[in-house]
C-alpha cells in the first residue's frame, strides 16, 4: 500500500515504476559498471552510481532527462517544491534507493505537470484507466512484482558502458517519440462537447486512433454485417402484411398517410416495408338492416323494415375511398334511406304496402340499385358473359350513364310493414261506409231491377198481345179471303150452272131468271126462314128465324 500512496502523491503514470523501485527489496540493482551483485539487495546506492532494476529503462531514462533539464541546483532553488512534502516522501519511502535530490526533482515534475498539460485533460477518462492498471500492478504480491521486475531485467538490462550509454540515449529518444505521439493522439481525439459522454467518446476515439487501418476496416465490415442482420431480423417481420381471403386492401404510407388508391391488393401475403400498411375493405357482402318511417302517396305514415346486401367493386375501391374514405358504409346507408323515402312519397300507396308487397319490393330494389350502383353497363355486357342479358338491355353506355357509388346492390328484401292502428281504424270506418254504400246501391239497384223487370214483362205481354192480335187479324183476313174466294168460286160455279140450266130450260126472260134464282136462294136458307101472318097487312111473309 506504500507504493499506492506514492502513486497518489505523484499522480502521474510516469513515476509508477519509480515508486515501485522506491520500496526496499523490490528488485536487485544494476551498477554503473554493469556488474550484477546478487548480494546487494537491500543496499541504498547513490543516485549517480546505481540504476534501480525495478524501474524500466525508458522511465528511468525520462527521470535522468528531466534531472539533467532541471538540474539539481535548479530543483533546490525552486520555490515550488515544498520541503514538508519532501520530508513526507522521504519518511514514506523509508529505505528507498532514491536520494533526496531525486525525490525533489520528481515532485518538481509533478508540480510542473499542469504547465504543459491542459487542465481539462488532467482528469480525463483515459488517464484514470491507465492509473487503475498501474494500481493493479502495484497491489500485486511481492512475488508477482519480483517476477515482473525479473522480466524487465531479462528484456531491458544492458551494460552502461560506452555502448550502454548509446543504448540508453536511443531508449530516451524512443520514449520521447512515443510519449509525444501518445500525447498528440490524446489531445486530437478528446471530445469536450459531448456532454455526459465526453469520457466514453474520447476513449473510443483514442481506441480507433491506436488501431491499424486494416483492423478498423474489419471492424467496420463486422459492425455493418451485424447491423444488417439486426435490421433484417427486426424489419422483415414488420414488412410482411397479410390480406385475408375475404378482404381487399389499399396501400398507405405510415409516415405521410398518403393512400395509393390506384393499386388494389387481394387476399395473400405481401412484403411492403416497415413504413407501409394496408387499409382493409370487406370483399364479402355488406349488410344493411334498417327500420324507418315513410310517407306514402296518400300521406299516411308507414314504418317499414328492409334488408339490403351490397358488394364493393374491387377495381373501383380506390375511387370509393377518394369519395368517402372509410366512412362509406354510413353514407351509403343514408343515401339508401333517402331514395326509399322519396320513392314511397311519390309512387307507393298504403294499398300497395297492404296488398302488393312484391311490387313494392321490386320497385325499391330497382331504385336503390340505380342510385347506388349507377346505370352503367357492367363489363360482362361488353363480353356477353353476364348470367342474364335482361339487365344489359336496360343499362346505359359509358358516356351517358350515371357512375353511382362503385357498389353493386344485389339483394333487397322488404321484411315488414307496420301500419298504425289509427290508419286501420280509418280503413275500417271507410270499409263500413263502403259496405253501407254498396248496400244502398244494391237496394236501389234492386228497385230499378224490379221496375225494369215489370217493364220488360209488360213489354213482353204487349208484344205477345200484339202478336196475337196480329195473328188473329191475319187469320181473319185469311179466312175472309178464303171465304170470299170460296164464295166467288161457288158463285162462279152457280152462275155457270144457272147459265147451263137456263140454257137447258130455255129460260130467256130476265124476270123468270131472277125468280128462279130467288127460289133457289130461299131453298138454300130454308132453316133460317119462318112464315107467319101479317095482321096489319093481312098477308103471309117469310123472315129469318130468331
UniProtKB/TrEMBL annotation:
Annotated segments matching region Disordered: 23-53
Keywords: Membrane, Transmembrane, Transmembrane helix
Transmembrane segments: 216-243
Protein name per its UniProtKB record: Band 7 domain-containing protein
Amino acid at each position: 500500500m506504500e507504493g499506492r500512496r506514492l502513486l497518489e502523491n505523484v499522480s502521474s503514470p510516469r513515476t509508477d515504476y519509480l515508486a515501485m523501485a522506491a520500496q526496499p527489496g523490490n528488485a536487485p540493482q544494476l551498477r554503473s559498471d554493469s556488474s550484477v551483485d546478487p548480494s546487494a539487495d537491500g543496499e541504498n546506492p547513490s543516485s549517480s552510481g546505481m540504476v534501480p532494476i525495478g524501474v524500466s529503462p525508458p522511465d528511468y531514462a525520462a527521470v535522468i532527462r528531466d534531472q539533467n533539464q532541471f538540474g539539481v541546483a535548479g530543483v533546490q532553488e525552486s520555490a515550488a517544491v515544498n520541503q514538508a512534502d519532501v520530508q513526507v516522501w522521504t519518511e514514506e519511502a523509508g529505505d528507498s534507493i532514491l536520494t533526496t535530490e531525486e525525490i525533489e526533482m520528481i515532485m518538481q515534475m509533478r508540480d510542473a505537470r499542469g504547465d504543459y498539460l491542459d487542465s481539462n485533460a488532467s482528469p480525463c477518462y483515459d488517464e484514470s484507466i491507465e492509473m487503475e492498471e498501474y494500481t493493479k500492478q502495484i497491489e500485486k504480491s511481492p512475488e508477482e512484482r519480483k517476477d515482473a521486475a525479473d522480466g524487465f531485467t531479462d528484456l531491458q538490462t544492458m551494460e552502461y558502458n560506452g555502448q550502454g550509454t548509446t543504448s540508453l540515449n536511443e531508449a530516451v529518444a524512443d520514449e520521447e517519440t512515443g510519449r509525444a505521439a501518445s500525447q498528440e493522439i490524446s489531445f486530437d481525439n478528446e471530445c469536450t462537447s459531448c456532454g455526459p459522454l465526453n469520457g466514453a467518446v474520447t476513449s473510443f476515439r483514442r481506441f480507433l486512433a491506436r488501431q491499424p487501418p486494416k483492423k478498423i476496416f474489419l471492424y467496420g465490415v463486422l459492425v455493418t454485417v451485424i447491423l444488417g442482420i439486426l435490421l433484417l431480423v427486426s424489419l422483415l417481420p414488420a414488412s410482411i402484411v397479410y390480406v385475408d381471403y375475404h378482404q381487399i386492401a389499399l396501400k398507405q404510407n405510415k409516415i405521410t398517410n398518403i393512400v395509393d388508391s390506384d393499386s388494389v391488393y387481394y387476399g395473400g401475403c405481401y412484403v411492403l416495408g416497415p413504413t407501409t400498411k394496408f387499409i382493409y375493405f370487406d370483399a364479402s357482402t355488406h349488410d344493411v338492416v334498417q327500420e324507418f318511417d315513410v310517407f306514402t302517396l296518400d300521406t299516411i305514415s308507414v314504418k317499414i323494415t328492409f334488408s339490403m346486401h351490397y358488394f364493393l367493386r374491387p377495381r373501383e375501391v380506390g375511387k370509393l375511398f377518394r369519395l368517402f374514405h372509410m366512412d362509406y358504409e354510413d353514407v351509403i346507408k343514408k343515401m339508401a334511406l333517402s331514395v326509399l323515402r322519396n320513392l314511397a312519397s311519390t309512387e307507393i300507396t298504403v294499398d300497395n304496402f297492404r296488398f302488393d308487397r312484391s311490387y313494392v319490393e321490386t320497385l325499391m330494389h330497382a331504385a336503390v340499385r340505380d342510385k347506388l350502383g349507377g346505370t352503367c353497363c357492367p363489363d360482362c355486357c361488353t363480353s356477353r358473359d353476364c348470367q342474364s342479358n335482361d339487365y344489359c338491355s336496360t343499362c346505359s353506355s359509358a358516356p351517358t350513364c350515371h357512375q353511382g357509388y362503385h357498389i353493386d346492390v344485389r339483394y333487397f328484401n322488404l321484411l315488414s310493414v307496420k301500419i298504425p292502428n289509427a290508419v286501420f281504424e280509418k280503413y275500417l270506418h271507410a270499409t263500413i261506409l263502403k259496405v253501407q254504400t254498396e248496400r244502398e246501391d244494391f237496394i236501389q239497384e234492386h228497385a230499378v231491377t224490379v221496375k225494369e223487370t215489370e217493364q220488360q214483362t209488360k213489354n213482353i205481354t204487349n208484344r205477345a198481345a200484339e202478336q196475337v192480335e196480329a195473328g188473329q187479324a191475319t187469320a181473319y183476313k185469311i179466312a175472309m179471303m178464303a171465304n170470299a174466294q170460296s164464295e166467288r168460286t161457288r158463285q162462279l160455279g152457280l152462275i155457270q150452272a144457272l147459265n147451263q140450266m137456263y140454257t137447258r130450260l130455255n129460260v130467256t126472260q130476265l124476270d123468270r131468271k131472277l125468280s128462279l134464282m130467288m127460289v133457289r136462294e130461299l131453298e138454300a136458307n130454308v132453316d133460317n126462314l119462318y112464315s107467319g101472318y101479317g095482321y096489319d097487312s093481312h098477308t103471309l111473309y117469310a123472315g129469318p128465324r130468331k
